[in-house]
Amino acid sequence: MSTQVTEQEQTEDPAEDQSEHQQRRLAEKAERREARDRMRERAETDLEKADTVFDLKVFRYDPDIPEKEKPRFDTFPVPFTKGMTVLDALMYARDHYDSSLTFRHSCRQAVCGSDALFVNGTQHLGCKTQIVDLGDEDDARVPGTVRVEPLPHQEVVKDLVVDMEHFYDQMNAVEPFFDPDDLPAPDEEQRQARENREKIKMSTRCIWCGACMSSCNIAAGDNEYLGPAAINKAYRFAMDEREGEGKKQERLEIIEQEHGVWRCQTQFSCTEVCPKDIPLTEHIQELKREAVKNNLKFW
């Protein structure tokens, strides 16, 4: 192997490369700082022009930064615009005041379920909740302060983002998929009666947002409780006439265990906060009746 050093290698200076890299990083930081300053100036202009301004009080927490690992609330003045949602307000605060403000969102059409939040003491979807709807029921004016926190009874990852792994584990525990006894021929449909479709229609609207689970006092105290969302998913398949009898029996055995439907105390909190208006408590009660009938024996 040749030990000859090329002319290019001889002219390379590690200290010079490091200096260039540092200068580039400093320039990038300066650009970001200028961009933040411009957005703050724009926010000040917006506030001056706005007819109505409200305070967005947001929970903050970042375990990776020592000075931010202690939970706190930051307040951002937000100019109100007609049709503004909680998610719109959060995005305004992130874009104009603090780009590190962290929260989940995706479709902005109440379908993905990613932006479930605890707003003014109640579970809401950020993209669906209008700011004007958070005021007094008898007064449609914008509230002076909108307080936004992560979903209760969930581990906070950062700011408004919570760890949803346990929720997904509970959903998957009821085996949320079809297992019919017989499949139709390739050129035939797997038909379902209109009446049966109407029976399960509301249960199919679940978007896995976790709002109901967060509102449930039983789930807060019993980490093994399946919870309203998972039980509703079991209802969706168990009550579908296309489900196989063997699989329906297995599903009923899952939900009638100690941490299944019998842990529900019929508080209706899950039904009240569901953004898709699913009658979760009714579905749980109907599965209780099915479990009782399933265990009846006549001699």
Would you write up a description of this structure?
By secondary structure, the chain is an alpha+beta fold. The protein is 40% helix and 11% strand. The protein is built from eleven helices and seven strands. The chain has helices at residues 7-11, 14-49, 86-96, 165-173, 194-200, 211-215, 217-221, 228-238, 245-255, 269-273, 280-295; strands spanning 53-60, 72-79, 116-119, 122-125, 145-149, 156-158, 161-162. The strands form two sheets. The chain has a five-stranded mixed sheet with strand order 2-1-5-3-4. It has a two-stranded antiparallel sheet with strand order 6-7. A hairpin with a 2-residue loop joins β3 (116-119) and β4 (122-125). α4 (165-173) packs parallel to α8 and α8 (228-238) packs across α11 (280-295). The chain starts with 6 loop residues before the first helix and ends with a helix. The model has no long low-confidence stretch (mean pLDDT 89).
